[in-house]
Amino acid sequence: AARSSPADPPAPPRATGRCHQLFISWALLSSLPQMVGVVGLEIHAQIQSTSKLFSGSHVRFLAPPNSLVSHFDASLPGTLPVLNRRCVEAAVLTGLALNCTINRKSLFDRKHYFYADMPAGYQITQQRVPIAVNGMLVYSYFEGRRRNQVVTKSVKIKQIQLEQDSGKSLHDDERSQTLIDLNRAGVGLMELVMEPEMCCGEEAAAAVRELQLILQALGTCQANMAEGQLRVDANVSVHRPGEPLGVRTEVKNINSVRHLAKAIDYEIQRQMEVLQSAGKVLNETRAFDSKSGNTIPMRDKEGLQDYRFMPEPNLPPLFVYESEASVPAGVDPAQVVVIDRLSGQLPELPSVKRTRLVETYGILQEHSFTLVNEDGLIDYFENVVQTTKAEPRKVIGWVIKELMGNLNSQNLNVSQSPISPCALAELISLVESGHISSSTAKQVFQEMWKAPEKTVGQIVKEQDLWMINDKEELQKICKRIVDSHPEEVQIIRGGNKKVLNKLMGEVQRETKGRTDPVQIRAILEKMVS
């Protein structure tokens, strides 16, 4: 063997035994690709309907306990389900909006499991042939340092199925008892199953927010998560790209978009740490604790119970028809669900609205998201634009910064704004016409907010906020400022032009912002030159 020269670096010591195994293990780990999260969602959306899925009982949030329960909801012997056509139409509309294939024939099944708040001991669902399959949801979120770079992605919708909700168990720890409220039992749900194609909490939250907006636009679900109208289960696993998916955990019943993002990101990090420490991820159901920000185990899913799915014997196949021409003879088209008729009822969806706003008004894409996300804000913005001659890009600044800033600080929605679109348009028009300055207009806006009964003109007149346009008066004001700041004038004449901004600030302070900065700068520059 060749002898090492003195210039050669010394060979590393040879690892032996357990140390050698660890050395190889760490070398292998460092060469492997990073683990990534994999997220799929199951979303239960409460159908916006006046009655339940299979009974005539009313649906109303916060009704007195057990006041909205029919004989069928209580599973009394001899009662039979009667399908609510409104619920079927809602599911078809939702499927069309999400680019799903609508099954012309779907089937109902029984899913057996015991819950104290499910009197029948089974749930009627659509396991074998759901009403809609193979859809797509396109969603967007922002990234970048300033959160203004739009990233658009899509996730496949595996299926949409109709099913019953359960009742509600209310646990009384002081008396060691559980109370059952069956008002919710039998309420119609759409379960939307999203394929595991997302990678983090931010993506999942963006997808759910977009789905909320779509459902609200369609009128098929109010999607108020705080009232349980939209409940999300997240299936989370981690793996290295190119390898099979890891063991998944299910985080159940997440009731806000913010909590969803936090729960998923925590669970991804937890699973990575378990695997990196040579542990094993368990197939289990977990819950999200919003106070600690952690997920906690609920029950083991290794021994998955047999739901004993079987065809629902009391419900025939559900048929929907492509067009009125395809409805069988002798059947009244008004009494069946027709896809073409529902397609004509599809409203302008959120993604289309955003594109229209950007193309029509030339606003930034991120501003279009704000307009669409806030209920009633598009109408408010368009009313202001139509009433004033100001450019839409100037109007959007007032709507997003001033209006939404005040609404958010007081936890109000757009319909509760004390300033009407016409009043804001009048204020913006005064700025555009040069009657008041933009800084003065912001003061007036706050006064309008406090005293909505007063008009813009009244406030401006009472506080003497009209713009000073008289050239002689402006000359006198600037002369006083220049004479009272000799040191600053010398610095400016010495070449430091930035100090001129201080003199401009003094003029603005003395006039309470009632001057045109461009005009003042020109006068001051001439005086100190």
Automatic annotation (TrEMBL):
GO terms for biological process: glutaminyl-tRNAGln biosynthesis via transamidation; mitochondrial translation. It is found in: Mitochondrion. Residues 379-528 form the Asn/Gln amidotransferase domain. Its main location: mitochondrion. InterPro entries: Asn/Gln-tRNA_amidoTrfase_suB/E (IPR017959), Asn/Gln-tRNA_Trfase_suB/E_cat (IPR006075), Asn/Gln_amidotransferase (IPR018027), Asn/Gln_tRNA_amidoTrase-B-like (IPR003789), GatB (IPR004413), GatB_C_1 (IPR042114), GatB_Yqey_C_2 (IPR023168), Gln_synth/guanido_kin_cat_dom (IPR014746). Keywords: ATP-binding, Ligase, Mitochondrion, Nucleotide-binding, Protein biosynthesis. The keyword Disulfide bond does not apply. The keyword ATP-binding applies. Its EC number is 6.3.5.-. GO terms for molecular function: ATP binding; glutaminyl-tRNA synthase (glutamine-hydrolyzing) activity. It comes from the Eukaryota. GO terms for cellular component: glutamyl-tRNA(Gln) amidotransferase complex; mitochondrion. It catalyses: L-glutamyl-tRNA(Gln) + L-glutamine + ATP + H2O = L-glutaminyl-tRNA(Gln) + L-glutamate + ADP + phosphate + H(+); L-aspartyl-tRNA(Asn) + L-glutamine + ATP + H2O = L-asparaginyl-tRNA(Asn) + L-glutamate + ADP + phosphate + 2 H(+). Allows the formation of correctly charged Gln-tRNA(Gln) through the transamidation of misacylated Glu-tRNA(Gln) in the mitochondria. The reaction takes place in the presence of glutamine and ATP through an activated gamma-phospho-Glu-tRNA(Gln). Allows the formation of correctly charged Asn-tRNA(Asn) or Gln-tRNA(Gln) through the transamidation of misacylated Asp-tRNA(Asn) or Glu-tRNA(Gln) in organisms which lack either or both of asparaginyl-tRNA or glutaminyl-tRNA synthetases. The reaction takes place in the presence of glutamine and ATP through an activated phospho-Asp-tRNA(Asn) or phospho-Glu-tRNA(Gln). HAMAP family: GatB. Heterotrimer of A, B and C subunits. Belongs to the GatB/GatE family. GatB subfamily. This is Glutamyl-tRNA(Gln) amidotransferase subunit B, mitochondrial. It comes from Sinocyclocheilus anshuiensis.
